[in-house]
Amino acid sequence: MSQLMRPSFDQRLIDRYGGEGPRYTSYPTAVHFTPDFGAEDYIQALAESNRLPIPADLSLYVHVPFCANPCFYCGCNRVITRSVTAGDRFLASLEKEIALIAPRIDSDRRVRQLHLGGGTPTFLNHDQLSYLTEMLRRNFSFASDAEMGLEIDPRTIDPQGIRLLREAGYNRISIGVQDLEGDVQQAVNRIHDTSMVAAVFGAARAVGFESISLDLIYGLPLQTTAGFARTIDTVIGLRPDRLSLFNYAHLPHLFKAQQRINEEQLPTPKTKLAIFRNALTRLLDAGYEFIGMDHFALPGDSLVKAHQNGSMVRNFQGYSTHGGLDLVALGPSAISQVGDSFAQNERKLDDWAIALEEGRLPVARGLTRTTDDRLRAEIIERIMCTGRLVYRDLERLFELKFRRYFAEELARLEPLAEDGLIEWTEGGFEVTPAGLLFLRAIAKHFDAYLNPASDQGGRFSRIV
Ligand code: SF4
Fold first, then answer.
1. Number of domains the chain contains
2. Which of 32, 73, 76, 285 sits in a 20 to 30 Å window from 336, CA-based?
3. What is the rounded average pLDDT for all residues in the chain?
């Protein structure tokens, strides 16, 4: 029995509302960060965060930028190399970054969450990962029950490595699977057989990882409805706690790696939708709950509970149970959020390392939110996470008359209400099952930075 609403699938609505839109892992989105925001602004934000009556606890993120092989669908910031010493040099620079940041954060602020992303965190060998973890533990105060997670490429780790990660304190992993069909893997240059994934998964279960998440991508070259159904069924058989089903965004003008994708092999929009619909149905029928956008979880998972009790949040890692934390992000291109300030590091590994070599924080751009930004961020997060808006709540928080302040936005939502994506309530609106697949399409009406005339030109991924 589903605990959360099941999304319904309507081709007519997809044609109308499935176009491009930001993923809203932040508001304003990162494309609006500016170089006017620099290291001094970030330092000031950190200082102010310490001065709050109750300073926020911390979420740490480390971007490990290396991969041994390029996946052709990749849209991430990464460096392709097989050099072990590249990892050592990275850790030496990271140590410098930590030395600049950690003393600026009061030591009684606990780390509640750590996430290693990339790139490929498991590009680092076990000694390097241990060194990294110990370095973080030495410089920050970890809560005894901190969530410690990392992304795993099953090609780069064996069951013994999984056991060592658990012993180092990691309790959550996310395994990149994408697709298990051999021809699709060849077409995207990411080859690992099912037994490799199953071995890593089984080892993680055996050593007691609290949460295992698997990532899949639909819309890749040579994918078919039947082939992807086999992948989904195999994955369902493993029973991960969480599943992400990402929509491949083919944006070769933005991501060079994607220029190696043979466009003739991409599924047609019709096939892609059929793949998605089939996967969605299989996951829901197998008992997975739809969290939002591309996320699914088993009933009883902390994300489902957070969704039910309204505490789920959205941040740079997608949907999360951890709200109210300051995010301190380390490594090239990593984005921190401290209070109302976003600070993004230099994207290029060399630029990031040079800044640290010179004793500078490697902040390249960022932004401090205005009151209007904070208000809209709150609205967008509520739509994305709870699917409902109660105007009175926002009026209390921001001292405004909601209907007057957002008269234009509410007028723009009228057609969505007529199409059944939302339902007006006495003092707000709620997303319906028909609207669940279009949370971004609903939320974007409150995005003051979005220009409908210029933001449909391949800048964002498709909503469905
Ligand atoms: S998709 Fe992931 S593993 Fe593949 S190249 Fe990009 S960052 Fe590396």
1. 2
2. 73
3. 95
